[in-house]
Structure formats: structure tokens, C-alpha cells
UniProtKB/TrEMBL annotation:
InterPro entries assigned to the protein according to its UniProt record, in alphabetical order: HATPase_C_sf, Sensor_HK_TwoCompSys, Sig_transdc_His_kin_sub3_dim/P
Chain segments carrying region Disordered: 367-388
EC identifiers of the protein: 2.7.13.3
Keyword set, alphabetical order: ATP-binding, Kinase, Membrane, Nucleotide-binding, Phosphoprotein, Transferase, Transmembrane, Transmembrane helix, Two-component regulatory system
Protein's UniProt keywords contain Transport: no
Keyword Phosphoprotein found: yes
Substrates-to-products reaction catalysed: ATP + protein L-histidine = ADP + protein N-phospho-L-histidine
Native organism: Streptomyces fimbriatus
Domain Signal transduction histidine kinase subgroup 3 dimerisation and phosphoacceptor: residue ranges: 215-279
UniProt biased composition (Low complexity): 368-378
Enzyme class: transferase
Pfam families assigned: HisKA_3
Bilayer-spanning residue ranges: 20-39, 51-73, 109-138, 158-187
Protein name: histidine kinase
Length: 430
């Protein structure tokens, strides 16, 4: 018995019934407009006194409903109603207004179907229960039917009176069955008519790609900024510890470099984390560039005990901001790799110059003769060069890195024209 009643009166069936009644309520304004058209066409007859004229008004109003479904809010509202009342999975439905002719046509078809079936079920829900109640109690009030109810003459017969309650109960079951069937039909057609179109899937894919690009950029910023700072601070502290008694001046310089490195890194970290906090504005730490902080980067790196020889073939101030910022991160990562992997006492050579319309960055250092503390790999490392390659590729440049003739060489070539397209960079921290 429960298995029979659940499809007709279960929670899902009741919610779908409510959805249909909402469709009937939405259809009423269109029916009234249709009545204004049908009434004069029928010679001024009262539309709601005739079932045929009511159906005609309903038929005139449905095309009007299809036209108004083109409003942008129609699909989001219908999708929300279907998700909550029809039990359709959210991932099978499209979000946002309909885009393109195909999506608008499907929305119009759905809206017409919803209002059409909803109007029929809502009308039945208003008419059938009172009629069924009369039939159920008719045997108990048989003496009243001829004077007050005006029932057909068939109920003069005793067998008709005896079957009246059965007919009333059957009418209620038929109403529930029609409502359940119409609700199931709408739930089955909803993904096809309200589901994502190819345009919707493309827009969703673009949104996911943009989000992934932002996440990748945040990961690069964290790796380049925090990773370099931790490597530099570790080596600065190690160098200061080794000469603590013999060279107090170097120790003071190393401690000052540690303080400056950590202060700058905390500012950059706050800028990156500000993007990750919902509702929080990005931090206001200035974007590091070659023009703003190349000298400071070299000074802090040298305070770690690494010798750096830098040659600038162009003024950093002349570089476009986007190019200067990305070049700074590339130089920072190259120096960070040298800090971690170069041997003791080696000199890192940095050269930055403009040649043939490209900014060229070259870092070289002799290969370590034997593994030392700096050349020991750290767990989870090995992403620095990949980040350099990603930055260069986004700017349309190239990267070459590897050992050659006893030296390690990193060469990055960035086209100067990329600075004219700053909007190509995904939205993220500076």
C-alpha cells in the first residue's frame, strides 16, 4: 500500500504538485489577457461561464507566456524552482540568463509547458476536490440533491447512490495521478529544456579556466616570494652564525638583510592572501619590479654569502611595468636557485639587456664540484624553473635552462611588445 501511495502522495510528488500549482498561478494573468481577446470575438459572451471559452482564453494566453519568457530572469527563476521542487540535480541545470537563440527557444518551450500543465492541474485541483466530496457524502444526504445540488437524474437510482463514494474517491486518485504524471514529465524534460547549452558550457569552461589561471598565478607568487625569502633568510642566518665571532660587521649586515627580507615578504604575502579571503580586498603592498627593488634584491642575496656580479645593459626604469614585474620574479627565482644549489664561494653572473626588441635575462654560475648544504634538494621543491617557464610563456617569451660546459645557465627572452597587453594577465595580486 505504501509503495502505491508514495508516487502519488509522497514528499516529492507533493512538491511537484506545488510546482504545477505555481505554474497555474503564473498562467492566470495570461488567461485574463486571453479572455479580453476571446470575449469580444465570441460576441461579448461571459468567458468564464463557458468551459470552451475558458480553454480558448488559455490557448491565446500561452503564446504570450512564451514571448515574456525571453526576459533574462525567467530561466534563473525557473531553474531555482525546478531544483527545489522537482528534485532535479543542480549540475543538470543551467545557471544565469539564457544566451543565444537555442537557449532562449528552450526556455520559451519550458515556460509554456510549465504554465500549460500547471494551468490544467491547478484548475483540476480547484474543481475536483469539491466535486469528489459531494459524491462521497451523497448517500448520506440523498434527500438534498434534487433541491439544492442539481445532480444528474442518474442519481435517482439506488445503485448510483451506492457507487457515488467510489466515484468520488476515484476522482481524487485520478487527480493525484494526473498531478504526479505531469510533475514527472516536467522533471524529465527540465534538463533538456533548462540544461546548459554549448554556449553555457563554454562560458562555464572559460570561468573555470580564469579561476584556475588566478590560482596558478597565486601559487607562483607564493612560491617565488615566500620560497626565495625563506631560502635567503636560512642562508643569511647560517652565514652569520659561522662568522659570529670573527666578523661582527658581516653579522650585522646579515641580520639587517633578514629583517628587510621578512618585512617585504610579509607585505607580499598579505597581498596574495587578501585575494584568497572572500570579501577582502587585495593587500596594498607595492608590486616588486626591477626598477623598484633590483638593487635591494641583489644586496639581500649578497648578504647570504653568495657573490653576485650584475651587468645591466638597459635602465630598469625604462622597462614597461608588466615586463619589469615579471622580470623581477624571474631574476628572484634564478638567484633563489643559485642560493640553494650553487657551491660555496662561487660567483653568480647576472646580465639584463635589451636586444632585437626583447628583454634578455641571463644568470650563470659554475656547477658545484661536490654536493654541499646548498645543493641538497628540499622536499616538495623543483617548481621554480616551471614557474619561470610559465611567466615567460604568458608573455610570449622563451626559457632555456641547464648545464653547459661546467656552468649552469638560465636564459629568458621576453618580447617588449607584451607590455602593451597588461589585460591578458588574469586578475590576481600585483
Amino acid at each position: 500500500m505504501r509503495a502505491f501511495a508514495r508516487p502519488l502522495f509522497g514528499r516529492r510528488a507533493r512538491l511537484r504538485w506545488i510546482h504545477l500549482i505555481l505554474g497555474g498561478a503564473l498562467a492566470m494573468p495570461y488567461v485574463f489577457v486571453g479572455a479580453v481577446v476571446v470575449g469580444p470575438a465570441a460576441g461579448g459572451a461571459h468567458v468564464f461561464s463557458s468551459l470552451a471559452l475558458q480553454l480558448a482564453s488559455f490557448g491565446v494566453g500561452l503564446p504570450l507566456a512564451a514571448l515574456t519568457s525571453l526576459f533574462p530572469l525567467t530561466r534563473p527563476l525557473e531553474t531555482a524552482a525546478v531544483r527545489w521542487l522537482c528534485g532535479v540535480d543542480a549540475d543538470r541545470l543551467a545557471d544565469g540568463p539564457a544566451r543565444g537563440r537555442a537557449a532562449k527557444g528552450r526556455t520559451a518551450a519550458w515556460f509554456t509547458l510549465h504554465l500549460g500543465l500547471g494551468g490544467i492541474i491547478a484548475g483540476m485541483s480547484l474543481a475536483v476536490p469539491p466535486f469528489a466530496a459531494v459524491l462521497i457524502v451523497l448517500p448520506l444526504a440523498a434527500g438534498l440533491w434534487d433541491t439544492r445540488l442539481g445532480l444528474p437524474e442518474v442519481f435517482d437510482h439506488a445503485w448510483a447512490l451506492a457507487l457515488a463514494p467510489v466515484a468520488g474517491a476515484a476522482s481524487l486518485l485520478a487527480l493525484a495521478g494526473c498531478a504526479a504524471g505531469a510533475g514527472a514529465l516536467l522533471a524529465r524534460r527540465a534538463p533538456a529544456l533548462l540544461g546548459p547549452t554549448p554556449e553555457d558550457r563554454l562560458a562555464a569552461a572559460e570561468a573555470r579556466a580564469a579561476d584556475l589561471a588566478v590560482r596558478n598565478r597565486l601559487a607562483r607568487e607564493l612560491h617565488d616570494s615566500v620560497g626565495h625569502a625563506l631560502s635567503a633568510v636560512t642562508l643569511q642566518a647560517s652565514a652569520a652564525r659561522r662568522v659570529l665571532d670573527s666578523d661582527p660587521g658581516f653579522v650585522r649586515e646579515a641580520l639587517a638583510a633578514i629583517e628587510e627580507t621578512t618585512r617585504r615578504t610579509v607585505g607580499e604575502l598579505d597581498a596574495v592572501l587578501g585575494v584568497l579571503r572572500d570579501g577582502d580586498a587585495p593587500g596594498t603592498a607595492p608590486a616588486p619590479t626591477l626598477a623598484a627593488d633590483l638593487d635591494g634584491l641583489l644586496r639581500r642575496t649578497r648578504a647570504s654569502g653568495l657573490k653576485v656580479s650584475a651587468t645591466l645593459g638597459t635602465a630598469p626604469e625604462s622597462l614597461p611595468p608588466v615586463l619589469s614585474r615579471e622580470a623581477y620574479r624571474i631574476v628572484q627565482e634564478g638567484l633563489s636557485n643559485a642560493l640553494k644549489h650553487a657551491g660555496e664561494g662561487v660567483t653568480v653572473t647576472l646580465r639584463v639587456e635589451v636586444r632585437d626588441g626583447h628583454l634578455e635575462i641571463t644568470l650563470t654560475n659554475p656547477l658545484a664540484a661536490a654536493p654541499g648544504p646548498r645543493s641538497a634538494p628540499r622536499p616538495g621543491g623543483g617548481h621554480g624553473l616551471r614557474g619561470v617557464e610559465d611567466r615567460a610563456r604568458l608573455l610570449g617569451g622563451t626559457t632555456r635552462a641547464g648545464p653547459a660546459e661546467g656552468i649552469w645557465r638560465l636564459h629568458v627572452r621576453l618580447p617588449m611588445r607584451t607590455a602593451a597587453r597588461p589585460t591578458a594577465r588574469p586578475k590576481g595580486p600585483p
